[in-house]
UniProtKB/TrEMBL annotation:
<feature type="signal peptide">
    <location>
        <begin position="1"/>
        <end position="18"/>
    </location>
</feature>
<dbReference type="InterPro" id="IPR036182">
    <property type="entry name" value="PCuAC_sf"/>
</dbReference>
<dbReference type="InterPro" id="IPR058248">
    <property type="entry name" value="Lxx211020-like"/>
</dbReference>
<keyword id="KW-0732">Signal</keyword>
<dbReference type="Pfam" id="PF04314">
    <property type="entry name" value="PCuAC"/>
</dbReference>
<protein>
    <recommendedName>
        <fullName>Copper chaperone</fullName>
    </recommendedName>
</protein>
<dbReference type="InterPro" id="IPR007410">
    <property type="entry name" value="LpqE-like"/>
</dbReference>
Length: 149
């Protein structure tokens, strides 16, 4: 009986503090030794009834993070920086290899693949949502996406 009460109150608490955007599947690619940048991927799901605009992300142990997308310019795939990204009400946006990605610069120290890092996603309305991500190795990523080739 006590357990049921506890579960109910936990559900209630998490409902009260529900975020308007769910951040799932956050993966941070490890920095290749000597490289000045790396990338992070994740999915944003806007569960609210209004559009939400992502304006920035603060990643633990990373000096600077930028929203980037890949664009075909004159037949060449190029990366361009986005000042912000709107997620329409009820929709999801996935950051993934070859598309939208979060570019990471100025790492504090070498990132171990076993590390978990916290990222805080900042929205135009002032909302800040944190998510925990896993640092993944290049080897593993190559393996994971081998079916794309
Ligand atoms: Cu980029």
């Amino acid at each position: 009986m006590k357990l049921i009460t506890l579960v109910c109150s936990l559900l209630f608490v998490s409902h009260v503090h529900a975020n308007s955007v769910d951040i799932t599947d956050l993966k941070l690619r490890e920095f290749i030794p000597g490289a000045s940048s790396s990338v992070a991927y994740f999915t944003l799901s806007n569960t609210s009834k209004e559009a939400r605009t992502l304006v920035g992300v603060n990643v633990e142990g990373i000096g600077r993070a930028e929203l980037h997308q890949h664009q075909l310019i004159d037949g060449m795939m190029k990366m361009t920086q986005l000042p912000s990204l709107e997620i329409p009400a009820g929709q999801s946006v996935t950051f993934e290899p070859g598309g939208l990605h979060l570019m990471l610069f100025e790492p504090d120290a070498h990132q171990n693949t076993s590390d978990k890092k916290t990222a805080v996603f900042i929205f135009k309305n002032g909302e800040q949502i944190s998510s925990q991500g896993q640092v993944i190795s290049l080897m593993r990523e190559t393996h994971d996406h081998s079916h794309h080739h």
